[in-house]
Amino acid sequence: MVLIDVKNVTKKFVLKKEKNVTLKEKLIYRGKEKSEEFWALKDVSCQIEAGKTVGLIGKNGSGKSTLLKLMTRIMYPTNGSIKIQGRVSSLLELGAGFHTDFTGMENIYMNASILGLTKKEIDQKLQSIIEFSELEEFINNPLRSYSSGMYMRLAFSVAINVNPDILLIDEVLSVGDTSFQKKCINKLKELKRQGKTIVIVSHDNHTMEILCDEVIWLNKGKIVKSGNSKVVINEYLDFMAEEDGIRLNNQKQQQNDESEIENDEVQLSNEEEKNRWGNREIELTNLKLYNDKAQEIYYFTSGEKVRFKINYLMHKNNEDVVFGIAINTIDGIKCYGTNTEIDNIKVEKLSSKGTVYIDIDSLNLIEGSYLIDIAVHKLDGTAYDYQVGKYSFQVKSNVHDVGICKLKHEWIIQ
Ligand SMILES: Nc1ncnc2c1ncn2[C@@H]1O[C@H](COP(=O)(O)OP(=O)(O)OP(=O)(O)O)[C@@H](O)[C@H]1O
């Protein structure tokens, strides 16, 4: 049975531009305030069946919250229709349906009655609402003294305890500590088992995959794809990784253009200076990444072949030379580092200008963004040129394993 039927829904917002400030403008534009139309949803149709948990995913501003708010009926579509069957409980952005001057207890009564409960019903549920929220000590304090995490505990606790047929939840699970987040996710799983219908907006793709039977991917107000959560989330992640990669490519191209203009004399900003040191007798002038088709690229599929190409200039002849490279996560965890000395490669008779290649057969990293350190130094470690985290690349993968690298493995279950 379909509980939520969204048919050809569009939602237009009118954005008021800056007011006419001068008397002349006021006279000229009288009655015609400057405004711009914005279509947050464009011809969206979907059906949500009873007992299903459905996730709305998409980039910031893609229309997820707008669609959820329309389902809650706190706003209405510009065109199209939304039919809902059953009692709805919603947990939208923090603050909706709560008043900061009232205590936690008073807010429970206020919010639960907005969600359709009588005073008697609330009295019966009061203890379980307070217990789940773990706010016993603070329940008689005004809400304005609550942290955003405490606020969320209370709101979540009310929303799940009003016995709804349909539960609509906007990105709120990320607020609060991890143990409470886990508790919320377990509660949602329990409600799911009880046959409740849940629509949830979140940027946490892992949680969405665990919780949702189906996922709807929105982009620029339109549905790109909907269906099996794993399939749709994978496609969405591919799309995001590609977009990030293209952005990195463009940034890199811009850096290349700028460094060509600056020629060999590099002027370093303070920030760059912190991440680069050495006497520059040998200077690393550039790093480029290539795939196995010799295309310059900064996003890879996990396991793909990659070539790092470092250009150097030798300003002063040196025989004592080690080239090195390291890959780090954006949190600064070293995934891998090596140098020519570790690999027993003797660097002999360098030209005044040349290239060093490092070929990695299989880039066994998990999905994410990575920063690269490159270095040239003496055997004793004295730096000619050491550059930390100036270059980056992106890895995408259909497998959402965790950690910092992929270990080849197989499972044997007996
Ligand atoms: N009340 C409003 N007035 C004007 N524009 C709005 C309003 N609400 C939303 N929008 C715009 O509509 C678009 C979609 O917003 P929405 O909040 O639905 O996106 P979202 O996918 O939930 O994004 P996020 O992941 O950042 O929460 C955005 O460009 C937003 O600025």
UniProtKB/TrEMBL annotation:
UniProt GO MF annotations: ATP binding
Region (Disordered): 250-272
Record-annotated membrane-spanning stretches: none
Domain ABC transporter: 23-245
Keyword Transport: yes
Family under the similarity heading: Belongs to the ABC transporter superfamily.
Family matches, as PANTHER family: TEICHOIC ACIDS EXPORT ATP-BINDING PROTEIN TAGH
Protein name as annotated: Teichoic acids export ATP-binding protein TagH
Organism, scientific name: Paenibacillus konkukensis
Gene that encodes it: tagH
